Amino acid sequence: MRGLALIIALLTLMLSPPPAVAQEAARLVPGASALTSSGGGWLRGPPDMQLRLTLTRAVPYRVFLVGDPIRLIVDLKDVDFANAKAQDLFGADLVPAIRWGHYRRGWSRMVVELPGPYRVASAGLRTGAPQPQITVALEPVSEAEFAPRPSAATALRDLPAPADLPEAPITEGLVVALDPGHGGFDPGAQAGGETEADLVLEFALDLRKALEARGVNVAMTREDDSFVALEDRMTLAREAGARLFLSLHADALPKGQAAGATVYLWNPASDNRAARQLAMRHGRDDLLAGVDLAGQDDALAGALMDFARTDTQPRSENFARWLTSRMALMGIGMHGRPVQGAAFAVLKSPDMPSALLELGFISDDADRANLTNPLWRARMVEVVADAITGWARDDAARASMLRH
Q: Which of 104, 128, 313, 337 has the fewest C-beta atoms under 10 angstroms from its C-beta?
């Protein structure tokens, strides 16, 4: 009997399936993944977009849209993003922001902030390629057609349910300071019979109308052909309670040196030659702007300003992403490096997010033609207005998440 029992035990052991081996988490292949756009343009509207995620093995996934702000959510089972950086994904500059990371046990999440309303036209997993690939196709839609997932506000963990959200529109009480550069005895750059001061003032007045139509309060540093000192521009914005300061310019540089819209953010260490040239033109003798730190020790004042910028600088950078992504989607021609740093005086104040937008360079023939084209200006006004309101919604959502 003992021999029979031993034989049965051996047969059972031989016929039993091998113990399960824990499967290694799938990984993203960054070099074979991308966010791309097609079609669109400043006359045709936003383009279609396609997200391709190549993985080391096939995994279950789900895709949906949420609102306030508008985002594409991609949940992936058993995927480890490891050391891959979202900002390095090819095409990441087409949208305001991309984030990814661990979501909950066994799942990772990718969040793509979209510059406007879209719908998921299709989503699928292809396993026949050398490596599995998830493809999500997005098509632009109107605000009325946008259909986010029900209870979108709870799609991200720890956010309040919709009933707990304030009913007031996100733009209620929002103040934006628009700063048309130059003016008065300072006409700014001049070319082709046009002056920078006149062009940016006309644009700023049109942008004010577009923002006010969206419920945004606008503070203008000048409303006519008058000169306002640089430190006074920041003071006017601060006194109005501005949550964002946007300076508007259309400068001139030596032929062939710069063309296309460019966004500048505060960076006193910038060694860009063009930025230095522009800073000299913008600064003149008014190089002290921002909070009044008279009587403070220089080291202490610098430390206080640097501390304040730990909040405002990332918010300025986020606004730049919203603005450049909207311009890209609407086919607005941009500089080869659309976001740059510079030590412009109007960006020096540490107590509010600030950016300087070069609408184009008046010294460039194509840019000057755009600046004087009513159709282009109207399109650019919509782009900037959409970017400001989109950024404001996102900024408020981020502040809400920090409070929670």
A: 128
